[in-house]
Automatic annotation (TrEMBL):
Residues 3-147, 178-282 form the FAD/NAD(P)-binding domain. This is Pyridine nucleotide-disulfide oxidoreductase. Homodimer. Keywords: Flavoprotein, Oxidoreductase. Its cofactor is FAD. Signal peptide: none annotated.
Length: 300
């Protein structure tokens, strides 16, 4: 079978694209090996009608809805390569299976690379997070810490001040704040610590204290940390599409990459803000672009 579209990735972008294309009676293959980045998250927020849903439940409901359409198939396979064909593309998988399609939609999302701090992985998703819009409400009015060696830590501090006035900013050993920024934060009683954090002291993932390089500790019950964002998968070497400085696929407003017939949606293209609702909207828009392109080709 040659599908109209092969969707690589079964997160909100890929699944919403499959829904739109399925309703347009397009033959769709969703290639997804069920390893979502947000699996550690206990609840996802900010998506109307699904506020507080677990990632697993979100995917279960989404697949239940998408697979109602007979032209949509889920292939639980890991993609290892892609190649251009005459009039389409071939996707190869870890098991050796080959899937051919007229169009490709890359919706593989991101992976996070964290600083090496003891206890971070145990706390992440329980008391440490990366997105205030996703988890700020749950940590409201608590003593919080922000650990980030990025210049954006100043903006993060101002943003979090809405949710909690008890903030400590740790630049993790880097001088990323200037004197004016420090003075502004300190005028709001926001403490700045420029030495490195070495450990998150916790009880079953619930943060209790943060230890710094000099051995000192402060009590905190939650916080936010800024990871390095990297594409979870990339096939620009296989297909030749353009990527931006962060490794995301460069697309136009319809999700088209610089290679004809190859689309991208969600975190695979814009790399932030990393929220369900943004990714789902991008998937819907890309699906409309794919369907339009298929329609034009069919009427030649």
């Amino acid at each position: 079978m040659i599908y109209d579209c092969a969707i690589i990735g079964g997160g909100p972008a890929g699944l919403n694209a499959a829904l739109v294309l399925g309703r347009a009676r397009r033959k769709v293959a969703i290639l997804d090996n069920n390893q979502p980045r947000n699996a550690v998250t206990h609840a996802s927020h900010g998506f109307i009608t699904r506020d507080g849903v677990t990632p697993g439940e979100f995917r279960r409901i989404a697949y239940e809805e998408v697979l109602r359409y007979p032209s949509v198939q889920h292939l639980p396979l890991e993609v290892t390569g892609m190649e251009a064909l005459s009039g389409g593309y071939a996707v190869t998988t870890l098991t050796g299976q080959r899937v051919e399609a007229r169009k490709l939609l890359i919706a593989t999302g991101l992976r996070e690379v964290f600083p090496k701090i003891a206890g971070l992985h145990e706390c992440y998703g329980t008391s440490l997070f990366n997105c205030p819009y996703c988890d700020g409400w749950e940590l409201r009015d608590q003593p919080l810490i922000v650990v980030s060696d990025k210049p954006g830590v100043f903006h993060m501090a101002k943003l979090l001040y809405t949710w909690s006035r008890d903030l400590v900013i740790c630049t993790n050993g880097q001088a990323v704040l200037d004197d004016v920024q420090k003075q502004l934060l300190e005028s709001r009683n926001i403490r700045v610590v420029e030495q490195a954090a070495v450990a998150f002291i916790h009880e079953e993932g619930r943060l209790r204290q943060v230890e710094f390089a000099d051995g000192s500790r402060i009590e905190r019950s939650g916080g936010f940390i800024t990871p390095e964002w990297q594409p979870k998968a990339s096939w620009d070497d296989d297909l030749g599409y353009e990527v931006n400085e962060l490794g995301g696929v460069v697309t136009d407003e319809w999700g088209r990459s610089t290679v004809p017939g190859v689309y991208a949606a969600g975190d695979a293209s814009y790399i932030g803000p990393s929220q369900l609702i943004y990714a789902a909207a991008a998937g819907s828009r890309a699906a409309a672009g794919i369907n339009l392109e298929l329609t034009e080709e069919d009427f030649v």
